[in-house]
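Could you please consider the sequence and fold appended to this message?
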Amino acid sequence: MLILGRDDILKVFSIRDAIEADKKAFMLHTKGKTKMPLRINIDNDKRDGQLMFMPAYVGGELNMGGVKIVSCFTGNAQKGLPVIPATMAVVDGDTGVVSAIIDGTTLTQLRTAAISGAAAELLSNPDSSVGALFGTGGQAPSQLEALMTVRELKELRVYDALEGRAAAFAEKYQPLADRFGTRLKAAATPKEAVSGADLITTVTTSRKAVFDAEDIKAGCHVTGVGSYTPEMCEIPEGLLARAARIFVDNREAVLAEAGDFIMPMKRGLFSPDRIDGELGELLLGEAAGRASRDDITVMKTVGFAALDVVAAAELVKRAKEAGAGTEINL
């Protein structure tokens, strides 16, 4: 059994690698090669944390299964622990043997950021130069890198509802942004963050929209990442009404889990038929993407387990080729 920790992963697996792995997973899902139940979410007794179990099998040439155990405990930030800790077990499709255990926290950060990167690459205007990032938690650095990987951003604004966090984040990660020629700027308000922005990623645990729809310019692309329960919401209802094209990573999962869509649906303000397609359908040419420079496009992701399995498979392959990680016998 191969054990891969954070350092092992980062040595052999880049954001670009994760983006390509996610694209592969999206297409396999659309082709019907994946089997996975909806994510199992369990609140702890105090309701200050959530345990999640994400199993999947991906057939075809991959022939691999896996399960990711992931949690969300916002109080972990004060304890010096990841807010979203996770562990991934990879299962061989021929033998049913667990062939690898992977630091799922790092895997989640990379494959989730890669969703945003893939969506921005597919849906935003190619000459997008100004970005905005909402949230500065554990996901934020990878999300930042993903946006800069797919678009040549001159400026990327960072906003966080907690005072001082955006400025601290911008200062800490400016050296990373310098590698891409991007200037990070802490935004004092949501309006300052999104006004004139070409692409926006939200990765928060908010239960209400994090910006106003009227502040979004024509031609902007928005990816909503953080809302993954019916009670959470980052994207304003008005933006869904303005959007020319709306995409999701997984229809079934989004309509069951994403408060961004569930809340307006309950009020009769949004219908599932407004969803133009999944990213896999877009990649396979089964759905049309942006038609005009002025189109506002929206992508909503809640994540699904096949993304982890495909990313883990590619990661294990690269690690073995590089001799990374530790082999153990149980």
The radius of gyration is 19 Å. The mean pLDDT is 95. The first strand starts at residue 2 and ends at 4.
